[in-house]
Design goal:
Helix 3 runs parallel beside helix 5. The strands form two sheets. The protein has a five-stranded parallel sheet with strand order 3-2-1-4-5, sandwiched between helices. It has seven helices and eight strands, in the order βαβαβαβααβααβββ. The protein is α/β, with parallel strands linked by helices. Strand 6 and strand 7 form a beta hairpin. The chain is globular and about 45 Å long.
Length: 163
Amino acid sequence: MRIFVTGASGWIGSAAVPEMLDAGHEVVGLARSEASAVRIEEIGATVAWGDVDDTASLAKAADDSDGVVHLAFQHEVAFGGDFAAAANADRRAVEAMAAALAGSDRPFVLAGGATVRDFALHVHKELAERLKYARIWGHARFDGQQVDRHHVLADKDVVELHA
């Protein structure tokens, strides 16, 4: 299986890509810098040049793959004080790759870190636009805790959306 991996040289990707290779998959890793490309090649994967802002290259790489694992995120933007911009870039990247895979049986794996708004967008675009808040059961501090659209979801969270 040919798997396109964003964030292949990152913290999660550098552990996940060798596992995929050991399982016999061909891995194509997204690189936005020479240093990332070197790390991707050192672990045995093929480099695809681009970044999460280049939705056309993401869509092309997804279309050329048998599946996608999306691990990239603009941490430097988020930690620099503009989490909304990083989340919006991530949303656009997810939309581009999902559109390329739409109508196929090819898998699309997302790492934890999706926001309530990202989740709402997958339900319906208008819901995401009208979203006021959500209630979360699962990893939240309190069951049924009210959170805003920028809240980062965790695996197995139960989400109730309010528009």
